[in-house]
Amino acid sequence: MLTKRIIPCLDIKDGKTVKGVQFENLRDAGDPVDLAARYAKTGADELVFLDISATEEKRKTLAKLVERVAATINIPFTVGGGVSSVEDASNLLYHGADKVAINSAAVKRPALIDELASSFGNQCVVVAIDAKQMEGVWKVHLVGGKRPTSRSLFEWAQEAEQRGAGELLFTSMNHDGTKNGFANDALAELSERVNIPVIASGGAGNIVQFKEAFTIGKADAALAASVFHFNEIDILKLKQTLQEEGIPMRI
Fold first, then answer.
1. Secondary structure of 99-114 in the HEC alphabet?
2. What confidence tens digit (pLDDT) does each residue in 48-76 have?
3. Does 250 reside within a domain?
4. Residue 202's closest CA among 190, 193, 194, 192?
5. Residue-level pLDDT at 20
């Protein structure tokens, strides 16, 4: 069985790491370079860096900050925010990213996934999906969760895979920042519908909930932010506990 991954996420706004609840009420969570260095040393399998206001502010991801973070870590590094072209992705890869995450731009122009996969390989393309359950249907949202669309989570995920996505990062807006656990039912269905790795995001609060994301939600990786930023969960202890519970981990 493949090992499961634990992935801290740096949500970046104005050059700082921030964290909120359901994409609102953001608060300062620390210096991204310092946090990245800490996570690389304490057992994180990968790191995700999302410039969460880049799309809304119609600008590109902070490449120089990406470069500073990349210089401090030795684990796979995914970067997203404001990526809308092969040129944007190439710039981030040049500055130290190993993979590029795309979200709003891909929904608006799905061919972007094909172009990135063709240029850099599927393994470099992570399609991030922010979705909210509305009247029983998971609807994809854009621009940092601010703009709902008519697209369903599962239909869009399947198209993203067909177009060349190497991985999906699904964030439940209903669960984000609540610490009430991941959207395991949706994760399980997503994992059944696609044949590429699914990263669970939104709702991490304790070690049991991480286990449930892997066992009930069938996720390949679990991503979290505040529980790591504010030292509520130690990554190494989390991985050791999960390993003891029968979840394969890279220790």
1. EEEECHHHHHCCHHHH
2. 999 877 766 655 668 899 999 999 999 99
3. no
4. 190
5. 57
pLDDT tens digits along 157-189: 999 999 999 999 999 999 988 899 999 999 999
Marked catalytic residue, from 45, 51, 88, 130: 130
31: left (phi over 0), alpha (psi -120 to 50) or beta: beta
Residues 45, 73 contacting (CB under 8 angstroms): no
What's the number of domains the chain is made of?
1
Q: Which amino acid is at 14?
A: D
CA of 12: how far to CAs of 16, 140, 144, 155, in Å? 5, 21, 12, 29
Q: Is residue 249 part of a domain?
A: no
Q: Is 88 a catalytic residue?
A: no
133: number of Cβ within 10 Å: 16
Place of tokens 């410039």: 51
Residue 68 lies in a domain: yes
Q: What is the pLDDT of residues 139-157, one digit of tens each?
A: 999 987 789 999 999 999 9
Q: Which of 11, 51, 176, 220 is catalytic?
A: 11
CATH number at residue 217: 3.20.20.70
Q: What is the pTM of this model?
A: 0.93
Is there a catalytic annotation at residue 220? no
Q: Is residue 153 part of a domain?
A: yes
* Token pair 């994760």: residue: 187
